[in-house]
Each structure stands twice: as structure tokens, then as C-alpha cells.
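Lab notebook page, bench 4
Experiment: in silico fold of construct C2
Operator: M.H.
Input chain length: 490 residues
Purpose: comparison with the prior construct
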Amino acid sequence: MAAAASSTDRPGALEITRKLAEICGRPFARFAGPADEVAGRTARWVAVPGGPHAAAEVLRLAAAHDLTVVPRGAGTKIDWGAAPAQVDIMLDTGRLAGVWHEPQGSSVAEIGAGTPLRAVQATLERTGRRLPVDAPSPGATLGGVLAADEAGPLRHRHGSPCAQLVGVRYLDADGELVSVGLPGTAQFGQAAPSARRGGSPAGPGGGTVPGGASAVLGGAEVPGLDVARLLCGSQGGLGVLVSATMRVQAVPAGRVWVSRPVWTPLEVHDLVRAVLAARLDPAAVELDLPVPVPLPRRRIPASHPSVAGRPDHPAVTGRPARPAAAGSLVVLLEGGPADVAERADRLTALLGPEAVVNHTAPEWWGRYPFAPGDTALRIEVPINDLHAAVYALRDAAGTPVPVRGSAGIGAVHAALPGSLPPERVASILAAVRGVLLARQGRCVVVSAPAPVRRAVDLWGELPTLPRLRNAKAHLDPHHRLAPGRLPGGL
């Protein structure tokens, strides 16, 4: 950190600061402070451009002085993934914000990258619409959600935020605005064979050039390179997102959450299969397996008022008492009120007498199981093997591990204590990945303390690495954008 701070004293540092102030305005350009970090790497400058044109000028200034640039939204996921090799300019997208509506009833809306997701939903709700995206990070911007491809419970029905993407406007490493529209949408007309660079940045609602599965980048055609999709999850390493045109939908008139206690991962497996086979069209199927809190052992006599007369008490049933539930399985149903009520009745009959219908989500809904300082894992596996992944994680850790996420699609998060030494985390990862390898699953380290991040392989096997390397070579050949943030040190 001290080294980064002293670098601002080098000859030319004040000149860079002056130029950034001219571009962004004096209050919006400064030397970086201790809090301006990206996964522990401190920036040298912070620039907050007021629009696409100013953001382009920041990137052109960086290119002229061979400086690196890392975009930042609200900073809710700034510690996710690998630390960049160097952060010269942190480009804050907070002023690249706004929701630009299409005509009333339109199924798409263009949204500035720096717009908080909550503000997007509040604005759309005024016209009875919503973005089917519910990323768990509080305060996250749309650009940050797309850059991390962060999804919440609604991914079960609607897929990741990237699946709702219709088009993007982004700045390349040289500061040129590139507009890319995905094929098959009315807004962008007929699909064209390529995306092209704009000569200069355009404001909100500016001209958009349609793009297909191939893109022309730097004069070379890259077959199959879907630029807009590649930007999702790129953590700013392939381009700086300016705005995204997203699909929107009507807010559902009815919503209920049907919950059932669960005791083992294998039971979860059986219940999820039954729910999916019943064709109830759930919007989300979420699992919460917290670490059980041991309770003091006390013998309560059958005559005690708290248990006397209970039909499930061992004195009445003659069977041993069932242990406290290990977690919960919750299914979200959305649609018309009558249709939701009918499906909820069918679901409760399927899940049994322990199922409960609620009109509000449980407290843990849409939240991660990890806390700051933990080693956060993301596990993705075919749903028939999710229970095997959870058991493998428990066995490797030697203790129950909190797990939460979308059991209906086999994508969950887990948390390891931040106090675990790096070599212990590495051994747990190796064991879990060994089990997942034969099941076509993956275990990724989302975030971790710095010693763990430096010592372990964050991504594991990544079959798409050659394609990612090819994309980086075409979109950012000089490695100016978030160098080292992508897998493989890209």
C-alpha cells in the first residue's frame, strides 16, 4: 500500500491528476486513498467520469501513458476473484447511471452501468415492470452485477443476468465506444454478421449497431466471439460497460414461498427431483443448510405443559423424537393469484404436512452464507449430484459447512472460516474438486483472505480458458484493463 501511495509522487503524477480533473471535473478526480483497493491492490488515482464521452477520455489518457484501468461500481464485489497485477486508475461508474425507458409496455429498457439495481427495480415498478434479476449483494450496480455475472434465486427460471441481456454499449481498451446488439430482438432489428466500433462515444439512446455471433475487432473477424456475453463475468477485464439493454417483464401479481424443513442433503435431492417432476413451474428452488447450533441437552418430562398432548411427542407416537431440522428447502411460486394458490396447494400436498405457505420470503432468502473474511466458494454441479458435492465438502472440511443457493439448478455457495490456513483450504478444494470432476461440476473460490487467495487455485479446471485468452488478445491486447483479474492471469 505504501508503495502504491508513493508512486503518486513520481514525476508526471500531478500532471495525470490535472488531466483527469479536466476530463471528469475537479471534484471527481483524485489520488486514491487506502480504501480504494481491488482485492487488496491499491489504486493510484480514482476517476468518476460524468458520461460515456468522459469515460472514453479517461481510457484514452490511460492508453497514452500506458496506465492500467479497473472499473468499479458500488464496490460490493471488489474483493472477488484474483487481485489485479496493477491498478493505476480506478474508473468509478457511479455517474454512468440512469434508466432510459422504451415506450410504455416495452419489453426492454436501457440502463446505465452505474445504476444501483435497487434503483432500477424501483423505477421499473412505477410502470408495473421489473428486471428479473435479484443479485444478493446489497447496493450492487447493474454493471457490477453483469461484470460478476451475479445471480440470485430467480436464476432458476430466468437464468443469470446475462440471459436477460439484449445489447450493451461498452468502451474498449483504447477508449472507443462499441455498441453490440444481440440477435433476435426488435430493438436492434435484424441480426448482422458483425459488431463495429463507433467513431466517438454517444450519449444515452445513441445509435446502436446490431451484432451477431461474430464480431469484427481491430479489423480481424473472430468467429463465434459473442462480445456481449463475454463481458458478463469478465470483471472489467475485457471492456468498461457503459450501459446495458435488458429484458423487462410485468411484476407478477401473486407470489408465495412454500418452505419445508430438511434433515439431510440426500433428502434435499429427493425433494428437488419431486418438485421438478411435478411441473409446478417454480420461479426459484432455494436451499439453506446452516451450521447447526448445538443446544443444551435437557430431559423434558412428557407431562410438561410445553409438550403434553402434542400428537408428535414420543409419549404419544411411541417413536423416537425427530432431531431438529438441519435446514430448509423453499420454493417460490409466481403468477396470477388463483394460479399461484392452486400450485401452492399441489406443492404442499407433495411436500407433506411439514410444508408451510408464506407470503414473505425467509430472512436468509437471496443472501450469501459467507461473511466478510470467510473463504467463499461457489459450487456448480448437475442437480442429481448436488448432494454428493455437499457431502464431499463436509467430509473434506471435517465438519458441517454452511451451504445456500439454487438447489433447483445445482448452483450453491458455501463458506469456510477465514481462520483456516491456506494449505488447509487448498486440501479441501482438492478433495471437493476431485469429487466434482467426475460429475461435470466445478468449485470456484469467489473471495478469500489475501493469504488464501495467493496460495490456492481460485478457478480449478477451466475448459473455456483458451476462448477467454483469445478474447483478451483481441479486446485488450496490451493488458490495460484489470490485468490479472481473469483466470490464467489474463
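Observations: Residues 1-6, 183-225, 294-300, 304-317 have pLDDT under 50 and may be disordered. Residues 24 and 49 are 5 Å apart (CA to CA).
Next step: discuss at group meeting.
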